[in-house]
Design brief:
With 201 residues, the protein is mostly helical. It is built from nine helices and no strands. The longest helix is centred in the middle third of the chain and has 25 residues, at 55-79.
């Protein structure tokens, strides 16, 4: 018995998302067309437009999936032990540990960020979705029992994202040059821990 449109929709969305993620990662956001996405998914353009308004909306759905997975992994990593005062540094180490695994996604997200920067409406939408990552990091930081820093947890969370993305971009360009300089990882940890402890003494 054929499935109803309602029951088929999750399967259709999953097929579109899987197809788009693979193509975006392989060829880039701009180089991938809606025609490419539906062809790889074995669907029609009508199926695409029944679920997404455009490529930007589809990318943002993928972005949410990535953020949900990342936050779930971070929460799991911190579940077995009560966070200590080094929680920002520990979060930064967890993010750094995913660098190789998420390299393709990082390149794609940077491409989309530049695209959004040239289109204010897209930038506003992206900022709303990015806030979910910051909110999740804030929750982990605020879970620290003896958090007495004068620095607002949201500022620390935003700094973690900035440091992680900046360090990843620098590593990729240095590796492409073939002369990877020793990266001052410990300096980054000292920066975030120093801010976290600000006002504690």
């Amino acid at each position: 018995m054929p499935k109803s449109p309602t029951k088929r929709r999750p399967l259709t969305v999953a097929a579109l998302n899987d197809s788009a993620l693979a193509l975006f990662t392989e060829h880039g956001f701009h180089a991938t067309s809606i025609r490419d996405i539906v062809a790889r998914a074995g669907l029609t353009r009508g199926a695409f437009y029944s679920n997404y308004q455009d490529k930007e909306e589809l990318f943002l759905a993928l972005y949410d999936q990535q953020i949900d997975r990342l936050l779930a992994d971070l929460r799991a990593a911190f579940a077995d032990a009560a966070p200590g005062q080094d929680v920002p540094s520990r979060l930064l180490r967890e993010l750094a540990g995913r660098r190789r695994e998420d390299e393709g996604w990082f390149l794609l997200s940077m491409e989309f960020t530049l695209h959004a920067a040239r289109h204010p409406e897209v930038a506003r939408s992206l900022a709303e979705h990015e806030a979910r990552l910051v909110d999740g990091l804030v929750e982990l930081i605020e879970a620290t029992p003896d958090h007495t820093s004068k620095v607002h947890p949201r500022d620390l969370a935003r700094l973690l994202v900035i440091l992680h993305e900046g360090a990843t971009a620098m590593r990729l360009t240095e590796e492409a040059r073939g002369e990877l300089a020793e990266f001052p990882e410990e300096l980054l940890h000292q920066v975030v821990d120093g801010l976290f402890h600000a006002g504690a003494r």
